[in-house]
Amino acid sequence: MQHAVNRSLFALFLGLLSLSLCGQAALARDTAAATKLQLQAVVDEAYALYKDLDEGANANYIPILETVPSDLFGVVIVTRDGEVFTAGDVGYEFSIQSVAKPFTAALVMSQQGPEAVHEKIGVEPTGLPFNSKLALELLAARSVNPLVNAGAIAAVSLVAAKSEEDRWQQVLDNLAGFAGAELRLLDEVYESEYSSSWSNRAIANLLYNYERLYSDPEEALIVYTKQSSVGITAQQLGVMGATLANGGVNPLTNKRLLPAEHVPELLAVMLTAGFYDESGIWSYTAGLPAKTGVGGGIVAVVPGELAIAAFSPRLNEAGNSVRSMKAIQHISAQLGTSIFGAN
Q1: For the whole prediction, is pTM greater than 0.90?
Q2: Residue ranges of domains in the chain, CATH in brackets
């Protein structure tokens, strides 16, 4: 009799446990669904808030960038698990420009370690415009960080390559690896940019003169200009950021692009220099490591969680996309993702 009671009680316990576990699983599913709805809602909200904002103007010092339709605007969140939430023109292909810079710095880190970036380029912000030649003369280190033109040209020259073609292919393959997609050179952008690259050519030659360039100057300039002319979409840019949020592993392909221990070092440089001479106000308002480009793209990283990317061609005087900045700032504030605490 006692054994029968014990078996009944045990069966009742198993039944209650099963109900409890089912309830927990359902709660987990409900929470995940709610989170997805929240992420889509905040993307939609940011897009709706700023889609009609017409402040700023397309970049004009690279002639072809003036021809990009100014009203294009896309916003995307990509989680470290590869979930994608979009609004607007996230499939439009534009030139990546300076948003490529941290990813080539990541390639150098992967090949030679972060000390190569620290010692041969630098990791300090300049406090001057991204294309400043004055910075090379004022600062004893000459190239100061890999996210301004001088440091980015130096980073390209540091890629361990046997030839110009090899150097370019490694840079392109690395960008494609972060994006989890095949990327291509936008020939018209490259031709427009290279034919008017007198300022960057001067920077490359000055760096070579000061022994802070590590390949032939013209080779470095050509590959750097091609790097800037790679076509990207806002959604692909989001995947690139999500790869950093995921500790250096692309969430779509599961390919490791950067050793996990070097991701914090790269994000630190993105936080302090990713917005050129607006990096301070960006940290103050959004509080996220990010990189901007004059093509209109911006990608921001919430370490260990997700990436927020946006694209819109109209720039402010510092060369940063007005709509993209505001959209990412809004999303960061709504989700409370600033690395310094919700604001």
Answers
A1: no
A2: 46-335 (3.40.710.10)
